[in-house]
Design goal:
By secondary structure, this protein is α/β, with parallel strands linked by helices. It has 26 helices and 15 strands. It has a six-stranded mixed β-sheet, sandwiched between helices. Strands 13-10-14-15 form a four-stranded mixed β-sheet, sandwiched between helices. It binds adenosine-5'-triphosphate (ATP). One of its GO terms (cellular component) is membrane.
């Protein structure tokens, strides 16, 4: 009896959760034995569990109960080489990076196994001839389904493994090519390679040494095709399969009607049960293969495997990134576009704001409302008794308004002016009373003034308050216009102009500048959010696409560990984040002259760490989400609260206490504040206001990475 390469014992596998109604076994009491050096054809209808069984054999999924032995060890055990270089696995999906060329795809797996470039080139030429591969420079994404399948098969064969596991390798291929592939597999088997192959073409399996017929997760029978035909007294395998299926149906039916307990347990006699292999000792007795675990052939290749794997994954990631123009543009140009957009759009005064004016004072003058255009008018005249005569001061006020970009449109009546506001032609309406200048003179010079004097010297304003920012701007400019107007009047009357100033004087600011700009306030928050988001989106997208395309899975079967994939990604992404950090700083500090007092190195470090934080958040999204859509929903759903609560849109001092506490724990609040303090106050890193932001960022990096590793470790597979 030939030694077995693969033994599966009493295997049970379930998907989903126990308490759900559709919780039923995908593999059920399954026994299977594949001797070394044979081709084992695994046949079965769609959904019967073939792929699940293969993924348990290559160590990507775990059985719920039962055992799997592969090449003398248990898949996943240290030193077993499975997953790893002893197996060549071609999954049902193409599982190749779409941006790979044909050559890259084959070389990628060769490099993982530590193959030298010369050997790889020879092997590539050989496989190109055997499988009629398209030209080596063609991109995978431009190939037909059949061509992609052949490249995928070549990738599984490249390192001449001991065990080949091929999930439907011949689907959609030309019959002549199929025949050639089978001939090649037969030759490999003669040379000692074990092949497990699933196929839908029952005819094909006649060439296998042994076939196993799988239905509803149960292996109905397994033996050589000739023996199966003889046992079931049939001329072809289809009929034999049909007979087995009918028998299985009958047995299940009978069992259901006779057994009251354990309806799911099939009597052992009804399915294949090889009682030879009950333990590692039995297995080794049968296979005489403790040596399999420690064999001499075991692998030199494994020794240098780690270096090869890192190299392979690094080259893959660079190719993936560099051949993806969208990704490149997004990563390199987007930070510049974002920062330029921010500085170009935010903080500038609104322009072309028009205000309706009803000037009763001017209207009553001999020149009417055009009097304000007359430059020869004397507005203020000093009398001999040193009192001041004032005339048409409303014109001065309007001049001050225009200097502040509030342009006036004259109306005859208040009703017309208010109507213009209601129609949104103007942002507000002002009315100057008929005796404005005289009443104002009395109001200022007299110690007391009657109500009618106060009324006559008051400008009425009706403002459109529906736009918060514009309203504030109009109000502020009116205040400023009034202050300038009042000072001008006092100056003209040779009086102390500070008298009209509110009796509070704003001295030299402790931090910042007197007329602080909103841009300088918002910029730190905007910069930390941009760099965080970009890294999170790029990372989650790359990782999810690797997973969805099956590249992650296939690389794992080839022996690449998740942490190796992550480490390579971290290195590459860190370089990208570094570039993004410099780009943003150059645009902000050099291009837009954003003021800063603190150390630029500390600023760069904080931005870089924020990028790393975003990258780790992207990792977390990619391991939590099974699709782009879900990751997009979670990303958008989490980013908005983070931005809203971080204090750049509204001060956290105005939030309820609980929300304030939450906002401090978020990744933008304290880092944005630290960056602002660094820029405006220039305080050193040792100040808690600065290192607090660093600590939160580092906390997020550690927290999200820890969650990723926990998720990867305890995910049910
Ligand atoms: N991750 C999963 N979660 C839940 N159910 C799954 C999962 N993967 C497979 N299944 C279910 O398990 C059953 C067996 O699937 P499997 O892919 O192993 O079948 P298969 O024989 O390879 O089918 P096919 O030939 O169509 O690929 C199917 O009913 C499938 O829907």
């Amino acid at each position: 009896m030939a030694a077995p390469a693969v033994v599966v014992k009493r295997a049970y596998k379930y998907y989903g959760k126990k308490d759900k109604p559709d919780y039923k076994p995908v593999l059920e009491y399954l026994d299977m034995t594949v001797e070394k050096g044979i081709i084992y054809g695994l046949l079965g209808p769609s959904g019967c569990g073939k792929t699940t069984l293969l993924s348990c054999i290559v160590g990507r999924r775990k059985l719920d109960s039962g055992e799997v032995w592969v090449l003398g060890g248990k898949p996943g055990e240290k030193g077993s080489g499975v997953p790893g270089p002893r197996v060549g696995y071609m999954p049902q999906d193409i599982a190749l990076v779409a941006e790979f060329t044909v050559r890259d795809a084959v070389y990628y797996f060769g490099r993982i196994y530590g193959m030298k470039t010369k050997k790889l080139a020879e092997r590539f030429d050989f496989l190109t001839n055997l499988l009629e591969l398209p030209s080596g420079g063609r991109l995978i994404k431009t190939l037909s389904g059949g061509q992609q399948r052949r490249v995928s098969l070549a990738a599984a064969l490249v390192h001449e493994p001991e065990l080949l596991i091929l999930d439907e390798p011949t689907v959609g291929l030309d019959p002549v090519l199929r025949e050639r592939i089978w001939e090649f597999l037969a030759e490999q088997a003669r040379n000692g390679t074990t092949v497990i192959i699933t196929t839908h073409y029952i005819d094909e399996t006649k060439q296998a040494h042994k076939i196993g017929l799988l239905r509803d997760g149960q292996l109905l029978d397994e033996d050589s095709p000739e023996e199966i035909l003889r046992r079931y007294d049939c001329n072809n395998l289809e009929d034999a399969f049909l007979k087995m299926a009918l028998r299985q149906h009958e047995l299940t039916h009978r069992r259901r009607s006779t057994l009251t307990g354990s309806p799911d347990v099939i009597p052992e006699s009804s399915i294949v049960n090889d009682s030879r292999y009950q333990s590692r000792e039995d297995f080794n007795v049968v296979t005489s293969s403790t040596d399999v675990l420690t064999s001499k052939e075991k692998p030199e290749r494994i020794k240098n495997g780690k270096k090869g794997r890192y190299k392979a994954v690094l080259i893959k990631s660079i190719q993936q990134f560099s051949r993806h123009p969208g990704g490149l543009i997004f990563s390199i140009l987007f930070p510049i576009v974002q920062v330029v957009a921010f500085f170009s759009a935010i903080g500038h005064d609104p322009r072309d704001l028009h205000v309706a004016v009803v000037n009763h004072e001017a209207a009553m003058s001999p020149l009417g409302i055009d009097i304000c255009r007359n430059k020869s008018i004397t507005y203020v005249a000093q009398r001999e008794d040193e009192t001041c005569e004032q005339y048409m001061l409303s014109c001065w006020f309007l001049e001050e308004m225009e200097k502040r970009k509030l342009f006036t449109i004259m109306y005859n009546t208040t009703a017309e002016a208010k109507h213009a506001v209601a129609k949104r032609k103007v942002y507000g309406a002002l009315r100057f009373p008929q005796n404005f200048s005289d009443a104002l003179a009395l109001r200022v010079t007299e110690g007391h003034a009657e109500d009618d004097i106060v009324e006559e010297s008051t400008i009425s304003a009706w403002i459109d308050m529906s736009d918060h920012q514009i309203t504030n701007f109009v109000k502020l400019q009116l205040h400023k216009a009034y202050e300038a107007f009042a000072r001008r009047t006092m100056r003209a009357c040779q009086k102390n102009e500070d008298l009209v100033q509110i009796p509070v004087r704003f001295e030299e600011p402790v931090f910042g500048v007197a007329d602080a700009e909103i841009v300088a306030y918002m910029a730190p928050g905007v910069m930390v959010t941009i760099i965080f988001f970009l890294a999170a989106i790029v990372t989650s997208t790359l990782m999810i696409s690797d997973r969805l395309e099956g590249v992650w899975e296939r690389s794992a079967v080839a022996g690449v560990q998740p942490k190796e994939m992550l480490q390579v990604h971290i290195v590459l992404q860190s370089i990208v984040i570094l570039v993004q950090t410099f780009e943003m700083m150059i645009v902000a500090y050099l291009g837009y002259k954003l003021p800063y007092k603190g150390s630029l190195v500390t600023i760069a470090c904080l931005l870089f760490l924020q990028g790393l934080g975003g990258m780790c958040f992207g990792f977390l999204l990619s391991v939590l989400c099974s699709s782009y859509t879900l990751s997009f929903f979670i990303a958008t759903g989490s980013f908005y609260p983070m931005i809203l609560l971080c204090g750049i849109l509204w001060p956290i001092e105005g939030m309820p206490n609980v929300l304030r506490l939450i906002s401090f724990a978020l990744p933008f609040t304290l880092p944005a504040k630290s960056l602002r303090d660094l820029m405006e106050k220039g305080i050193p890193f040792t100040n808690p206001d600065i290192y607090g932001g660093f600590l939160i960022t580092i906390g997020w990096i550690i927290g999200t990475l820890a969650l990723c590793f926990l998720r990867l470790r305890y995910r049910k597979i």
